[in-house]
Structures are given as C-alpha cells and as structure tokens.
User: Fold this.
Amino acid sequence: MKVTEYFEKAKGQALISFEVLPPLKGGSMQAIFDTLDPLMEFKPPFIDVTYHREEFLYKKRSSGYYEKVAIRKRPGTVGICAAIMHRYGVDAVPHLICGGFTTEDTENALIDLNFLNINNVLAIRGDARQFEGRFVPEEGGHHYAIDLVKQIVDMNKGKYLDDNIENGVKTDFCIGVAGYPEKHFESPNLDFDLLQTKAKIDAGADYIVTQMFFDNKKYFEFVERCRNIGITVPIVPGLKPLTKLYQLNSIPRIFHIDLPEDLVTAIQSAKDAEGRRQAGIEWSIQQSKELKANGAPCLHYYTMGDSETIRQIAEAVY
Ligand code: FAD
Assistant:
C-alpha cells in the first residue's frame, strides 16, 4: 500500500515509522532484524531504508603512492527492503538518490523496485562526497531531487527514457521528498528553500519527510509556511533522540540545525552517560507527544541502530 494511503486510513491518528541504515559492507542482515524486531510491536505500516552513495578513499599502494578508490560502504538498500517486507509483512520505503546514478541507472533501479512490488520511494538528491566541496551528479544524472521526482512521475505514466517503448508498464510509485524546517544548508534563505520544496510537490511528490529537529516550534512554523504557499501534502516530522555529549556538536555540524538551550543544559548537567541518555529520551518523548497531539500524520524515527532508545520513546508515546 502507498504511504499516503496509510495516512488517509489513519484518519488523523499519528502513525509511527522507522528508518534504518544498511549495515557496513561485510555486516549481516541480522543487524537490521535486531534493530527492527523490538520495534515491530508498535505496528509501523512502513519502514524506510537509506541509500548510500560511493565514497572516495585514498589507499596507499606498495609503490608508496596513494590511489583514489570509490567504495560503497553501505550497499544493499533494495535487498534490505525486500527482506523487511518478507519478514514483517510491512511496506519498505527505499531512499533513491541522484548521486551516483545516471538516468538510465535510475530507470533500471525503479524497474527492480516495481518488480519487487515496492511502491513507495523517498526521492532525494544526496550529499556531496567526502573531499568534494559540493554535490556533483553522475555524468548524465540528475542535479536536484526534483529531476528525480519528474523521472518517477514519467514512469508512473508509462514514459521510459527510450522513446521507442510504447505502452510501457505504468509504475505506481508513491513519492516522498525531503523538507527542512531549519532550511537546507545550501539554500540562501528559508523562503527560497520552501519554493524548491513546493516545486518538488508540484512536480508530483506525494508527501514530505523532514530533517530532524529538536524544537517543535520549527516544525509547526514550517508546516504553516508550507500551507501558506499552497503545499497541501502530509508533512512527516523526522525525529532522532540526542543521547550523547558529543552529539551537541556533531548534530549541528552534520545536519545544520540548532539545539534548544534547555536540551543542551539537560544533556550537559546529567551525571553520567546513562543520565544523558535518559535526558535525551525524555526530551524526545515530550517532543513526540506534542507533535502527536497537534496533527502530525506520522512520527518517523531515525533509529541509527539504537532500537532500545527508540523503543523506550515509542512505548511512552504509543
Ligand atoms: P534537493 O531538493 O535537490 O535540494 C538541494 C538544494 O538545492 C537545496 O538547497 C534546494 O533549495 C536547492 N535546489 C533545489 N532545486 C533547485 C533548483 N532547481 N535550482 C536551484 N537550487 C535548487 N542522503 C543520502 O545520501 N541518503 C539517504 O538515504 C538520505 N535520506 C534522507 C532522508 C531525509 C528525510 C532527509 C531530510 C535527508 C536525507 N538525506 C539522505 C540527505 C539529503 O540527501 C541531503 O540533505 C541533500 O543535501 C539534499 O537532498 P534533497 O533531496 O533535499 O535535495
């Protein structure tokens, strides 16, 4: 079933969903099951699986020279989606990115997903690779998420890259896109960013999942500003608990978001690691309860492999 159909069926009740990362290459599928098994009691209708582009590494060769090699550290998104659907009987939502894909690669990936009966995708651009200052698309690939959305919409109409294909199978993908309550870091301002988000919806995307945030005011304002410019699709808040001291610096640096003073104080003043974990859990519970009570269609938790923390939050909220 489509993600948006779950929202319609829920009739205003906030659903719950989770996001998992493929294990590092060499890891096992069991790691994903170990993360998800304890969370299935909350009955998520869908689970997202992230996609990770290749990264460049410099490997020292016996000659002493360094060679630049491209390595995908976390492959397996599509296989994980299929395994999740098979084991739990829920829908899986693979993330599909522009980076590293030609339009032909994208088309072939969508054909694979369609054949696997995966009818939901989160269409995103991807970030710049390490050692590259800005996002560089694959030659013949998409520059922005909106271009990917358009390609998926075309396939939903039976339009393939090869004009000779007549009466091509019409796929039926429900398309999610990313949104940023605190602005995407490359955008000159929030209004500009909102217009790009609107353009993705106008191009055919069906719903938005937000970047994580720790101040609900940012989400509520974002939703209001989206509605004011005519974005009517569901806007799903993305949530991650902050439970470790180093995250006070790493989360703002990596995700370009602010942390509320009260949360910073709660983490800093906790006695030990367990105290910090509990402070972060408590913050996330309060955030979740307020979002749930105020019309969020679904609470989408970034698990990052820490299912026990997410389970404690979900237990208090659902
Ligand atoms: P876009 O919508 O293309 O926007 C990128 C930037 O370009 C923005 O600043 C936007 O305002 C601007 N822009 C857009 N269109 C135009 C235009 N036509 N002209 C000028 N400027 C424009 N990354 C991964 O690699 N794998 C994942 O699985 C993954 N999952 C994610 C899930 C969620 C919910 C979120 C919020 C992010 C995720 N990301 C993931 C990170 C994402 O790839 C980055 O945030 C990336 O930098 C932007 O992706 P986007 O789809 O928002 O890009």
